[in-house]
Amino acid sequence: MVYNFAAGPAMLPIPVMQRVQEEFLNWKNMGISVIEISHRSKEFEALVDETDQLFRQVTGLPDNYEILYCHGGAQMQFSMVPMNLIHRKPGKKALYVETGNFAKIARVEAEKFGNIKVVATGVANNYASIPSLEGVELDEDASYLYLTSNNTLFGTRWDSFPDTGEIPLVVDATSEILGRRMDYSKFGVLFAGTQKNLGPSGLAMVVARKDLIGHALADCPKLMDYAVYQKEHSMANTPNTFAIYMIRLVLEWLRDIGGVDFIEQQNAAKAKLLYDYLDSTDFYRATALPGSRSHMNVCFHLPSEELLQTFVKEAEKQGLYALKGHRMVGGARASLYNAMPIEGVQALVNFMREFARTRG
Ligand SMILES: *Cc1c(COP(=O)(O)O)cnc(C)c1O
User: Fold this and answer.
1) According to the model, what pLDDT value does residue 360 have?
2) Does 8 reside within a domain?
3) Is there a contact between 336 and 267 (Cβ–Cβ < 8 Å)?
4) pTM for this predicted structure
5) Do 171 and 216 belong together in one domain?
6) Which of 70, 71, 75, 146 to mutate to test the pocket of ligand 1 (most atoms within 8 A of CB)?
7) Domain range for residue 285?
8) Measured at the alpha carbon of residue 50, what is the angle toward residues 45 and 55, in degrees to the nearest 5?
9) CATH number of the structural domain spanning residue 299
10) SS3 286
């Protein structure tokens, strides 16, 4: 038994993987694979409709939001967001909150397209907590405010989202989409690369309020324009059909085990198990501060680089895969996405306790 703690591409639900394997050569009794049929066939169009419906069902997405399957993963949205939104207002202004590396990359990319203002940053404490927006004046003429809901490298998350009034809130939810309940009516645009809680890599699922679509730069490339994805139901050209097929199965799995309400509780229990242990020992130290701690990516340090290397190696020997942290943060990281069962976290805590006892 291997538990995969990789940050992304990440572990997917075993029942979903089994189903893919079972029906790979013969999908819907067609005698061929889902990846061999036309994206314009009625069968595939039905599959995309079902995927949309399942997403709406499990998230409660309001009707005035469009679901788009965009090429290029999460980081393509770092470009598409400003290309589609920044020209809504004459000042071409957007506000960014820097809570980690991905937020920073997004901000640097957006600077190519308009006037970017960083309204808060967590850099002072190396992104160990989410900076507060309390008392921060938000420019009313900004086209949008951008934040990263869960910071995959630094293991922090927004416990609750700021009220941005009339300014559309744009959220990169790549590493926690479907991991907790969210009120989508608060967002202008929410996007997620698909390789963490949704399926295989290469696509982004984008949820956009309809009135925010159709404002792209005049010279925006066709396949970067949200309006094209909306008009063509994400099939202006051939999308990653296999990824959409798997997302559909993941959504169905999530619905059948109890939906987002259930998984949110499960994720909270998993995170608590690990943070409670981390807080009870001096051997390990959690990097994220209470109040900002991610339920998806738990980052922690060991007493030395040498012990870290041994820790990662020995964990892997015991079936606890990919615990090395990101090089920008150092230490270890356990990603506990929706597909990780609580038994995996228990196995990790047991291993950590034993490791600390014998090496501490
Ligand atoms: C993984 C991740 C990304 C990068 O995703 P790509 O699909 O590789 O571009 C961006 N943002 C967040 C928050 C992530 O976790």
Assistant:
1) 82
2) no
3) yes
4) 0.98
5) yes
6) 75
7) 259-359
8) 130
9) 3.90.1150.10
10) strand
Average pLDDT, the chain: 97
Counting from 1 in the atom list of ligand 1, the atom nearest the Cα of 102 is: 11
- Say how far apart CA 236 and CA 240 lie, in whole Å: 12
pLDDT at 317 over 90: yes
Q: Are residues 203 and 224 in the same domain?
A: yes
Among residues 202, 236, 257, the one where a domain terminates is 257
Last residue of a domain, one of 230, 257, 284: 257
User: Is 290 found in the same domain as 244?
Assistant: no
Please state, in angstroms and as integers, the Cα–Cα distance from residue 325 to each residue in 104, 162, 222, 299, 339, following that order.
Answer: 19, 29, 38, 7, 20
Q: Residue-wise over 192-203: b if at least 16 C-beta within 10 A, else e?
A: bbbbbbbbbbbb
Domain match, 218 and 207 both: yes
- Mutate which of 146, 174, 329 to test ligand 1's pocket (most atoms within 8 Å of Cβ)? 174
Going 292 to 296 to 297 to 302, the CA torsion angle's sign is positive
- Checking 116-124 for CB contacts under 8 A at 24+ apart, the result is 117/93, 117/142, 119/95, 119/145, 121/97, 122/98, 122/154, 122/156, 123/98
Q: How far apart, in whole angstroms, are the C-alpha atoms of residue 173 and residue 3?
A: 23
Q: Which two tokens stand for residue 56?
A: 């709406």
In the chain, how many domains are there?
A: 2
State pLDDT tens for residues 180-238.
999 999 999 999 999 999 999 999 999 999 999 999 999 999 999 999 999 999 999 99
CA 248 vs. chain centroid, Å, equals 17
pLDDT at 171 over 90: yes
For residue 242, CA distances in Å to 34, 173, 194, 248, 249 come to 7, 22, 12, 10, 11
**Residues 45-86: pLDDT tens digits?**
999 999 999 999 999 999 999 999 999 999 999 999 999 999
Q: Is 168 in the pocket of ligand 1 (CB under 6 A)?
A: no
Query: Which CATH number does the domain housing residue 101 bear?
Result: 3.40.640.10
- Length of the chain, in residues: 360
- Whether 174 lines ligand 1, by a CB cut-off of 6 Å, is yes
- Ligand 1 closest atom vs CA 76: 9
- Calpha distance 170→96 (Å, rounded): 9
